[in-house]
Amino acid sequence: MDSTISEPDARVPLGAAADTGLKIVIVGGFGVGKTTLVRSVSEIRPLNTEEVMTQAGVGIDENAKVSEKNTTTVAFDFGRISLNDRMVLYLFGAPGQERFWFLWDRLFSGTLGAVVLVDTRRVADSWYAIDRLEHHGTPFVVAVNRFSDAASHSLEELREALSLSDDVPMLECDARQRESSKSVLIGLVNHLYDLSMAREMTP
Amino acid sequence: MIRRPVDLGDPDRLYIVTGGRHRTDDTSFDLVTLIVSECEPTPGMQSEHVRILELCRRPTAVVEVSAELKLPVTVTRILLGDLLATGRITARHPRPAPARHALPDSALLKQVLDGLHNL
Ligand SMILES: Nc1nc2c(ncn2[C@@H]2O[C@H](COP(=O)(O)OP(=O)(O)O)[C@@H](O)[C@H]2O)c(=O)[nH]1
Ligand SMILES: [Mg+2]
Questions:
Q1: Pocket of ligand 1, candidates A30, A35, A36: which has the most ligand atoms within 8 Å of its Cβ, to mutate?
Q2: Three-state DSSP class for A98?
Q3: Across the interface, do B30 and A110 touch by the CB < 8 Å criterion?
Q4: Could you say which of A30, A46, A175, B73 has the lowest number of CB atoms within 10 Å?
């Protein structure tokens, strides 16, 4: 291990051979447990940053001043998992609200897939995210984060409430538990693997 | 009219960059492109460049550079572009984003699964 004195904080650097970055996005409404999930599996303390963007028409005059009010700053947090010497998986906690979705392409294109975190007390918060992912063709699983004060609904009831098709896996999770969060990620990648195998079998 | 997100950093710098490198900007740095320093900082270098070269002695994702510098991703990309153009860093890009509705190959996903199981 490096123990350089000049290292100002507890940064954990990647191995020198790391060359393939991968992405998984955790989507869900405010307070649903995105950051908690990322923290429970990440090898680094979750970091956050922001992207400043503006919505503008394609045909905009190049010299036009971009007016302040069209810009949006989107903050997101992320964590990291080194999968092996070369591959490193980044987990992004992304806001699921409608007004952020124009960012999806730019920010999260090339993502392996998504986890939609659902709080059973606010199921409707997830409708929009699910709709957009389907529209986008981004594969996803739904993880139901059960808060203790929530009434219990069966996964089948929730599937109905979310109008989820049968081929989208649903999982229960407690984002505070590392093993639970880990199994959500494994559930997603298993799903991706199945989809990919099915596609590779089809001529 | 189609709505399309456009990056906005410091407008002046953004203008300089987009003015010169219109097309390449789209593909340059993904959030998870891994950056590696190819030299040590030199005296007189812009402080952000110094910080990047120090951070990236080991591979560091664009998004981590952004978080460590406390600068928006957009601005970070511009700084990285400066360093890349002068050969001070190299970039290890993720595999190209699969086309819409396409999936990564199963061999890659198998490696991801193995990595997660070993956590
Ligand atoms: N009971 C319970 N509480 C949780 C769970 N996941 C997150 N929380 C709590 O919910 C609150 C919001 O979580 P946070 O991760 O910040 O939500 P975010 O806005 O989606 O990032 C925190 O106080 C967490 O401790 C869970 O699985 N079960
Ligand atoms: Mg959060």
A1: A36
A2: helix
A3: yes
A4: A30
Q: Could you report the per-residue pLDDT of A156-195, keeping only the tens digit for each?
A: 999 999 999 999 999 999 999 999 999 999 999 999 999 9
CATH 3.40.50.300 fits A2-201, yes or no: yes
What is the identity of the amino acid at A62? Answer: E
Do B82 and B35 meet the contact criterion of CB atoms below 8 Å apart?
A: no
| Residue nearest (by alpha carbon) to ligand 1 atom 15 | A33
Cα gap B6→A38, rounded to integer Å: 28
Domain boundaries, chain B: 11-117
B11-117 domain in CATH 1.10.10.10? Answer: yes
Judging contacts by C-beta atoms under 8 Å, the chain B residues touching residue A84 are 111, 114-115
Contact B59 A14 (CB under 8 A): yes
Q: What is the ipTM of this complex?
A: 0.85
Rounded Cα–Cα distance for residues A58 and B5 (Å): 9
0.80 exceeded by pTM: yes
